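Consider the following input, taken from an annotated entry for NmrA-like domain-containing protein (Diatrype stigma).
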Amino acid sequence: MVKVAIAAATSQLAREIIDRLVETKKHEVIALVRKVIIEPPTPTEYINIDSENTQDPSKYESLPGLTWTQVDYEDKADLVRKFQGVETVLCFFPVHLDPGNATQKRLIDAAIEAGVKRFAPSEWSAGVKLASSLDAIPWYGGKVEVIEYTRFQVGAFMDYFSHPHNTTKYIQTLPFTFDFENQQATVVEGTLDDVVVWTTVNDIANVAVRAIEYEGEWPAVGGISGSRVTNGQMLKLGEAIGRPFTVRWLKKADLEAEKRDSSGMGDFDLHTLTPEQMKDFLDFATRGILLAMSRGVYAVSDEWNRLLPDYQFTQVEDYVKKVWGGKSKSSDEVTT
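Applying the prediction step yields:
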């Protein structure tokens, strides 16, 4: 049995992984909730937020082997106490709300002092090329500043392809670069051969559990590569299942120009945005992510694939056919 602490435990991806850990019936899970009330912004589709909106741990779902625990993230001594006997700490902070990664660094210091063996910073997205594209996706700046122990890097969530149907319990999806429901795609010109890694939330959660149980040394960079697919292959896949895309082509030069005119967009507080400002930010975020994808930021590595060779990852073609194969726009919602 391993004792695992989850920081920012109410974020959507954290909840998915907590459920999977509980299902194993092997581990003791400490889910940390903030003592200070933080109301989440809406909509929350793009940002993996720390949506702790109550001070009472009893309000959260009670599961065998899971303890919801209040913590003061500003109090290192409190963190050290909470980490006693913990082997692994997984962090899910929204890095854009942690200036200078002060809270994550405090977590690391507390983990070292408490004798924690393993720490995973709040990565769970882009790969090692992120540092070169912070001009396009500046809200991820904190992901390249924290001390490295193992960095789970997963590419993009494949589950976005199912929108508006639900294939996860907690993750909120949105129509992203390839919108199968409305048969629309947004692609940067000249990127048909560019590779993007798409990984299901189910695979991410499964690998995280296996990583906690892995007896070898964790890699400093922990790529989780679900399905490596080019943009051209995605367009052909739409045709193959009878849902061809109408493509909106964007020019990379235009995206670069927009990026240069958007200085300061990484220094925002989602709590203060109006609905119209949020809409503008989501559009900005989409275009920034497309630019980052064209630079290879989401073509993450496959360290955990190689360390766990027996694990079979969901492939995009199989996933899309399961959700959309033979469906019309008016079909009933899929459940998996």
